Amino acid sequence: MIAEIVVSVLLVLGGFFGLVGSYGLVKLPDPMTRLHAPTKSATLGVGAVLIASLIWFPARHGVLTWHELLITLFLFLTAPVTGYFIAKAHMHLGWSRDELPRPAPGKDWATFCDPDKASLVDRRAGD
Amino acid sequence: MIRRLFPHPWLSVTLVLVWMLLVNRWAVGSLVFATIIGVVVPLITAPYWPGPHGYSKPHKIPAYLAVVLWDIAKANFTVARIVLFMPRRALQPAWIAVPLDLRRPEAITALAATITLTPGTVSCDLSEDGRALLVHAMHAPEPEAVLDEIKTRYEARLKEIFE
Questions:
Q1: Do the Cβ atoms of A76 and B113 come within 8 Å?
Q2: ipTM, interface predicted TM-score of the complex
C-alpha cells in the first residue's frame, strides 16, 4: 500500500517533469535556451520513473533489479555529450566568433580552431 | 607487475560492477567474465589515457556525487519554474567563459558534465589551449555569480579529488 502510494507520486512527478521539458522546447525563444529545458527537466523526470520502478518490482514481485541504476548512470554519461554536440553545431550555425566571450585575449574556442593543430591530449602526452 | 596488469584500478572496479549489474543475477561465471573485462578493457584503452591517472583523494567522490545529485534535483525545479512562469522577454541568457584551474582532461570532463547537468547551465566548448570552458546560462542576470558558483562549488572539489 505504502509502496503503491510512493510509486504513484513518483510517476506523477516524472510525468510532470517530462511535460515541462517538452513544453520548454516549444516555449523558450532560441536553440541555446531550448537546450536547457530537456537536459534538466528530463533528468529528474526519468529519474523519478526509474526510482518508481526500483521500488515497484521488489515490493510487488519480490525481485530486486539493478538495471535502473545503470540506466541512470548511462543517462548521466550521455546527456552532457548530446548537449555538447548540439551546442557546438549551433555555435557554428547561429553565432559569430565576436558574439561569444573569448577564453583569453588572442585565444579561441576549440571548435573554431584549425583542425590540423595538435590537440590538447596530444600535447599532454608529449609533455 | 600489479600496476602493469591494472593500469586503472578504479576503471577495472567500475567495469566489474557495471557488468555484474547488467547481468543482474549472481553467478560465479558472470564474475569471471566481469573480471576478464575489468582487466582487458583498461589494458586496451591505456593509450587513450595519457598523463597521470588515479585520484589523489578518492574518498571525496561520494560527497561530490551527493552534492551534484542534490543540485540536479534543485536544478529541475528552478528550470521548471523558469519554463512555466517566466515570460519570454524576462529571460536573460548569457555566455560565460570559465577560466580553469583544473589541468587533467578527466577532471575537466567531469566538470563539463557537472555543469551541463546542473542549474540552468550547459557547457559548450573548451578553449584551444584547454584553459577555459565556454558555458551557456539559461537565465543569468548576474553572470559573475554563476561563474563563482562553478568555481567554488564544483571545480574546487574536483581539484581536491583529482589533483
A1: yes
A2: 0.77
A vs B, Cβ pairs < 8 A, gives 146
Q: Please tell me which of the candidates A41, A88, A101 has its beta carbon nearest to residue B97.
A: A101
Assigned domain for B53 exists: no
Q: How far apart are CA A74 and CA A70, in angstroms?
A: 6
**Is B10 part of a structural domain of the chain?**
yes
Which domain, by its residues, includes B24?
2-48
- What CA–CA distance (Å, rounded) separates B163 from B108? 11
pLDDT tens digits for B105-126? 888 888 988 888 876 788 888 8
Nearest to A65 among B24, B116, B130 (CB): B24
Condensed to tens digits (0 to 9), the pLDDT of residues A95-122 reads: 877 777 877 777 778 777 766 665 555 5
Q: Which of B13, B84, B72, B81 has the alpha carbon at shortest distance from B42?
A: B13
